[in-house]
């Protein structure tokens, strides 16, 4: 019965190689990485993390340090689901989902990492063990690219062994989106999967018009066409067009996922363990998806999600995200024949290269 003795958390503000743009969030110049390390009285420890698109990191750090760490101190670190419930209950009134979801996720991932390292089990094994690999696609944040740069970016994904790609849509002129999709489809050929993502920037009517216009180009899914909290709107888009819809990165609570799966007529669900309650939350959503008969996918943090995805018999597609968190770990995700391969070491398999992150450590707020 390992007792929690210490929790330390840090924030890193990591610059991107270039400013990236999507239809709703605007310009991304950096991402924030929040890490949490949990230590136990038997000498074991585990590290978890969350990330943001550049906003909210200090608030997440504060929730970990001031609200969650104190209630975990002295608790049995092996009771991960009970600890997840306790954290959810402790900040329920002020933080269902949102910032609290990110903070809880970082700590939950740390607890799973410690369990695996203590028991000598990999995350693939702990999460179900269906396989050690899964299908993967490269997800670009490329709405601001002109056509030559967009195609060069996609070619880079193909050169890296990509079997599928996703591009952003949501330009003011729908004809621009159509032309870009057509050009990318021509480049990748008819046999590779092609997805598009509007980052919920469109009205329902615009989303329906766009989905119909994209249909001839054989898209695997239309991701977040509209407000992800309006599940009835997703159902209307699906019914009007027949185009497969995907979403989930902006859902943070199990109640939201349950309603989405019941109402939104999704073809794919995309939980992100960085914000939906960590590994505990992600696995619960995966079970919901299995029961609903649809594939579970992922959003971001591919270095962790590769293990969760590989472990599921109903796995869809792992996203290889444009925020390169795995550049700062000891094991960027390898691809073999277009499949992403999960680590087999005990714990989550995510080990940060702390010296490479140190230059980006956030300074205390004044």
Your description of this structure?
By secondary structure, the chain is α/β, with parallel strands linked by helices. The protein folds into two domains: 124 residues, Enolase-like, N-terminal domain (Enolase-like, domain 1, 2-Layer Sandwich); 217 residues, TIM Barrel (Alpha-Beta Barrel), CATH 3.20.20. It is built from 13 helices and twelve strands. Strands 4, 5, 6, 7, 8, 9, 10, 11 and 12 form a nine-stranded mixed β-sheet that branches. Strands 1-2-3 form a three-stranded antiparallel β-sheet. Helix 8 links the parallel strand 6 and strand 7. Helix 4 packs across helix 11. The longest helix is centred in the N-terminal third of the chain and has 22 residues. It is globular, with a radius of gyration of 20 Å. The model has no long low-confidence stretch (mean pLDDT 95).
Overall structural domain count: 2
Quaternary structure:
single chain
The CATH class of the largest domain is Alpha Beta
- Uncertain parts: none
- Taking Cα atoms only, what radius of gyration do you get, to the nearest Å? 20 Å
| Fraction of residues in β-strands | 15-25%
Largest sheet data? 9 strands, mixed
């Amino acid at each position: 019965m390992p007792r929690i003795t210490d929790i330390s958390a840090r924030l890193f503000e990591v610059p991107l190689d270039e400013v990236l743009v999507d239809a709703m969030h605007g310009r991304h110049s950096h991402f924030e990485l929040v890490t949490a390390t949990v230590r136990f009285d038997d000498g074991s420890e585990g590290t978890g993390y969350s990330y943001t698109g550049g906003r909210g990191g200090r608030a997440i750090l504060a929730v970990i340090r001031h609200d969650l760490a104190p209630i975990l101190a002295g608790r049995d670190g092996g009771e991960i689901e009970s600890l997840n419930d306790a954290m959810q209950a402790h900040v329920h009134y002020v933080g269902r989902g949102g910032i609290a979801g990110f903070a809880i996720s970082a700590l939950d991932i740390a607890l799973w990492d410690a369990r695996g390292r203590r028991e000598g089990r990999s995350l693939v094994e702990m999460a179900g063990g269906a396989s050690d690999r899964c299908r993967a696609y490269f997800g670009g944040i490329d709405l601001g690219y002109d056509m030559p740069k967009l195609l060069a970016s996609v070619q880079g994904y193909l050169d890296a062994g990509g079997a599928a790609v996703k591009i952003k849509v949501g330009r003011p002129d729908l004809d621009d989106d159509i032309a870009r999709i057509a050009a990318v489809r021509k480049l990748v050929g008819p046999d590779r999967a092609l997805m598009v993502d509007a980052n919920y920037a469109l009205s329902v009517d615009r989303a329906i018009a766009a989905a119909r216009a994209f249909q001839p180009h054989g898209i695997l899914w239309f991701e977040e066409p509209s407000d992800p909290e309006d599940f009835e709107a997703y159902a209307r888009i699906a019914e009007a067009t027949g185009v497969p819809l995907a979403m989930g990165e902006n859902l943070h609570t199990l109640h939201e996922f349950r309603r989405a799966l019941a109402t939104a007529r999704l073809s794919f669900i995309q939980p992100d363990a960085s914000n939906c309650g960590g590994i505990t939350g992600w696995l619960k959503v995966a079970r919901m998806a299995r029961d609903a008969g649809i594939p579970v996918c992922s959003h971001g943090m591919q270095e962790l999600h590769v293990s969760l995805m590989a472990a599921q018999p109903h796995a869809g597609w792992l996203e290889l995200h444009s925020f390169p968190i795995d550049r700062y770990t000891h094991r960027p995700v390898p691809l073999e024949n277009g499949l992403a391969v999960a680590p087999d070491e005990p714990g989550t398999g995510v080990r940060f290269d702390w010296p490479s992150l140190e230059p980006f450590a956030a300074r205390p707020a004044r």
